[in-house]
Write a structure and sequence with these properties.
The complex is a heterodimer. Chain A is mainly alpha-helical. Chain A is about 70% helix and about 0% strand. In chain A, helix 3 packs antiparallel against helix 9, helix 7 crosses helix 9 and helix 10 packs parallel to helix 13. The longest helix of chain A has about 35 residues. Helices cover about 75% and strands about 0% of the residues of chain B. Chain B has 14 helices and no strands. The longest helix of chain B has about 35 residues. The two termini of chain B are about 20 Å apart. Classes of the chains: A mainly alpha, B mainly alpha.
Chain lengths: ~300, ~350
């Protein structure tokens, strides 16, 4: 049995890691933002902006490092737009997030037209010497690319930042009880803004993964709901970076399912399979709701409030 | 305090002008002439009898989708699911059109309307139930539904409902003539416009002249108070979501029954999101929605013209809508700040009044 099934499972899990990585980056950033009490529904738009920025820079310079910096900056700029409106101007966070979504969608569709179908320098896979030889785990986790490897320590870094540093404490305080945080000397507006802008930068990188690795080029609206999934994933992961990682791979698997079932020759409509990630999110949110039916789902208490 | 109300009322107009100016500035930076864009927008939306008729055609789904956003908001919920419910309504209407194609027009048209409404209600009941009984964020679930709905339609038009006459096109068979909606002669303006205006008027009466309307408003502005007053808050929340789903489904019904004459996966260039924008511009007031729907429809129709004449990409509409939403939020902030300052001056206090 092992001979036929192992390669398939390896392909599935490696595909899950690849498909999950863009969601993971966006979800890690959104975890920071939501922990600070800010909901950013516009991640979809932020990811698109990051994806296009990296395509443009990669196309003209061929420098992947610069392409990633561009995605990071573009994401941060869009994140600061959300910080300006939802925090500084105390606008409704949902509406500001949607504005970000619509604007990001429009701007990238407009500016991306010349880059559709253009060949760009994409991020090559790199086998990690030694680790990639581990049976099963090696090909799944360590025969990927730079951005996948960077995401492993990032998960731990965000967890460390949230749970073990003074700034992380201020972030959580700003999300749970902004008045008390303010009274105890934290600058709530500043802390929240930093969380949202860093969150935007992470989503920008997530977008860059899609264009530099996944699609290796620019396609209009290429995120296809991944930004939204990331927002939901943060809730499913109950605002924890490590759980967000497992969740992201679960969704990566849902996306990989389509390609995988085609290789096995099963006849399932690609449109029905395409629903899998969205329906999966719906399904996994239900137990979270059941579990916390009485309270607010364990969400940061001040989440979404100006 | 009349002058304060006036400044609040001017918010959407100030925002629209600011958004148009920002759009012009952006086009200027991209090396296009803003004036030719403005004049192209005007000519394409209001410059001729044909243009005005096309603007009215686009107004219909926007009114429905804006009402579909506004009604849930009355009870404090933020639904972005109009786009999905539009597609669900289109599926319902298509089912009736294909199944009962031998029926006469008087029976077929209402049955399409009814099945569209049912489909919209069922579609919206999912996020509503998840929200009311499990506390799951309705905004996220309604947005998810939008993706699923389009895939569902694509599945249908690539599969069981694919037109047997042309297998190369992902669309359903054309509806029979008796399924078509009555139109204003010589234009594509259809019965849906009358239904949309009627729905807005009815909802205006409901909101401003009935006890239920008042109770919904209290539920929306202060759920805790509504609970203490013994209002059935959960029932209200379910009700507004389902009504919202039905309203958005009407938009889908209009699109398949009068505009396309068949089911296709590209029914809406984002009417659901335009409706969301309109609802927030109109502060969820049904009559305001009628006016601002016309404004946004003019923008959409005008940009169609620009796409044809000046090769300006369709994406410009989304850029404009995003800018407009941000301008709206900015203008609201300025108006609120003025109000607060005036209240402070009025009461003779020096400190800022908390929001």
């Amino acid at each position: 049995m092992t001979d036929t099934w192992t390669p398939l499972l390896v392909a599935a899990f490696a595909g899950a890691v690849r498909g999950g990585t863009p969601i993971l980056y966006a979800a890690l950033g959104e975890t920071l933002a939501q922990r600070a009490g800010v909901l950013n529904l516009g991640l979809e738009g932020v990811m698109l902006v990051g994806a296009l920025a990296s395509v443009v820079v990669s196309y003209y310079t061929g420098q992947l490092f610069l392409a990633l910096i561009a995605a990071l900056l573009a994401g941060a700029v869009f994140g600061s737009l959300h910080a300006l409106f939802a925090l500084r101007l105390r606008a409704n966070q949902v509406v500001s997030g949607l504005a970000l979504l619509v604007l990001g969608n429009g701007i990238t569709a407009y500016l991306g037209i010349p880059y559709v179908g253009k060949k760009i320098t994409s991020l090559p896979p790199v086998k990690l010497a030694g680790l990639s030889e581990i049976p099963f785990l090696g090909p799944v986790l360590f025969q990927q690319d730079f951005l996948v490897y960077a995401s492993y320590p990032l998960v731990l870094l965000i967890a460390w930042l949230l749970y073990r540093t003074r700034f992380g404490l201020e972030i959580r305080a700003a999300g749970e009880d902004p008045e008390t945080a303010d009274a105890s000397g934290a600058h709530v507006l500043f802390v929240r803004s930093v969380a949202v802008i860093v969150g935007g930068a992470c989503a920008g990188i997530g977008g860059a993964y899609l264009s530099l690795v996944y699609a290796q080029g620019w396609i209009e609206n290429m995120t296809a709901g991944r930004g939204l999934i990331s927002v939901g994933l943060v809730i499913f992961a109950r605002w924890d970076p490590v759980r967000a990682m497992w969740g992201a791979y679960l969704f990566g698997l849902a996306w990989a399912l389509k390609l995988l079932l085609q290789t096995t020759g099963l006849q399932v409509s690609p449109y029905l399979l395409g629903m899998a990630p969205y329906l999966l999110l719906l399904v996994v949110l239900i137990p979270v709701g059941v579990r916390y039916r009485q309270g607010n789902g364990g969400a940061p208490t001040a989440l979404g409030k100006a | 305090m009349n002058y304060i109300g006036l400044s609040k009322r001017s918010v959407p107009f100030v925002a629209s002008v600011a958004a148009l100016l920002l759009l012009g500035l952006g086009l200027k930076l991209l090396g296009r002439s803003p004036w030719s864009v403005y004049s192209g927008l005007f000519a394409g939306s209001l410059g001729s009898r044909f243009a005005i008729a096309e603007t009215l055609v686009a107004t219909i789904p926007i009114i429905f989708c804006a009402l579909a956003t506004a009604v849930p908001r009355w009870a404090g919920l933020i639904s972005v699911g109009a786009e999905g419910a539009l597609y669900a309504g289109a599926v319902g209407a298509t089912y009736a059109a294909l199944q009962f194609s031998h029926w006469p027009s008087v029976a077929l048209v209402p049955s399409m309307l009814l099945l569209a409404a049912c489909a919209g209600a069922v579609w919206a009941a999912v996020p509503a139930l998840l929200r009311v009984f499990l506390g799951i964020n309705e905004t996220i679930v309604t947005l998810l539904g939008n993706y699923v709905a389009v895939l569902l339609v694509e599945y249908l038009v690539h599969g069981v409902w694919q037109d047997p006459a042309s297998y190369s096109w992902p669309q359903s068979a054309a509806f029979v003539a008796s399924a078509e909606l009555p139109r204003w002669p010589g234009t594509r303006v259809h019965l849906g416009l009358a239904v949309a205006i009627l729905a807005a008027l009815l909802l205006w009466v409901l909101r401003s002249r009935t006890v239920l309307g008042l109770r919904l408003e209290i539920t929306g502005s202060n759920p805790t108070a509504a609970n203490y007053a013994g209002y059935p808050v959960r029932k209200y929340q379910l009700l507004v979501m389902v009504v919202g789903g039905i309203l958005a489904a009407m938009a889908g019904w209009g699109q398949v029954a009068a505009i396309e004459g068949r089911l296709r996966s590209a029914l809406s260039p984002g009417y659901g999101y335009s409706g969301f924008l309109v609802a927030w511009m109109a502060r969820h007031h049904p009559l305001g929605i009628l006016g601002f729907s016309l404004l946004l429809a003019a923008m959409l129709t005008g940009s169609d013209n620009l796409q044809l004449r000046q090769q300006l990409p369709a994406a410009m509409v989304n850029i404009f809508q995003g800018i407009l939403l941000f301008c709206l939020l900015g203008a609201e902030y300025i108006a609120d700040r003025q109000t607060t300052k005036m209240q402070v001056a009025h009461r003779g206090h020096e400190e800022e009044v908390p929001q």
